[in-house]
Amino acid sequence: MNNPPSYEREVRGYLIGFGKALALTLIPFGLVAWQKLPASVVLVVIGVCALWQIVVHGRYFLHIDLSQQKREDLLLILFSVLLLSIMAGGTIFIMANLSHRMH
Question: Is 90 exceeded by the pLDDT of residue 75?
Answer without folding.
Answer: no
